[in-house]
Amino acid sequence: MMMSAFTNTLLLAVVSLLALVSAAPVHLRLRDVFVPPITSPTNETVWVVGQQYNVTWNTSNAPVDITNKMGRVVLATNYLQDYENPLASNFSILDGWVTVTAPNVTTGNDYTIVLFGDSGNYSPNFTITDAAQDHESFILDL
Q: From CA 125, how far away is CA 97, in angstroms rounded?
């Protein structure tokens, strides 16, 4: 019986110690989520496959403590993101721009850019076209 009382006392001491440690104040630093509006491309933008373009966003209201400063730019169509094939990655979202190459995709006007860092921010829909394909269509129309 003596062993049982000792075990119970030891168990109570350990549980009390754990409760004390878990009740200790934790000082977390408050961080802000940064959702910069994309300024380019716009809904009037046309990219040609294989050409380079600047994706730009407004950094004027960037908070001091951003949760994730490393950016990634992906292409989306119909809000389906091609996260496996980023157009750019590992850049600071505080830069306000990054150069990308228009990917080889089907001509369409339902493409958007998604800027990831703290969050995913979508550009307006814009057009990507294959210049060679458009040139062939123009010749056939003559």
A: 18
Backbone angles phi, psi at 58, to 5 degrees: -85, 120
State the pTM of this model: 0.71
Residue keyed to tokens 């080889």: 104
Q: What is the pLDDT of residues 58-72, one digit of tens each?
A: 999 888 888 888 999
Q: What is the pLDDT of residues 122-134, one digit of tens each?
A: 999 999 999 766 5
d(CA 126, CA 33): 26
Q: Choose the most confident range, by mean pLDDT, from 3-17, 21-35, 82-96.
A: 82-96
End-to-end CA distance of the chain: 103
Collapsed DSSP state (helix, strand, coil) of residue 12: helix
CB 26 within 8 A of CB 84: no
Positive or negative torsion for Cα 54, 47, 89, 57: positive
What sign has the CA pseudo-torsion 83, 89, 95, 99? negative
Report which residue type is found at 52. Q
Closest CA to 109 of 138, 86, 82, 78: 78
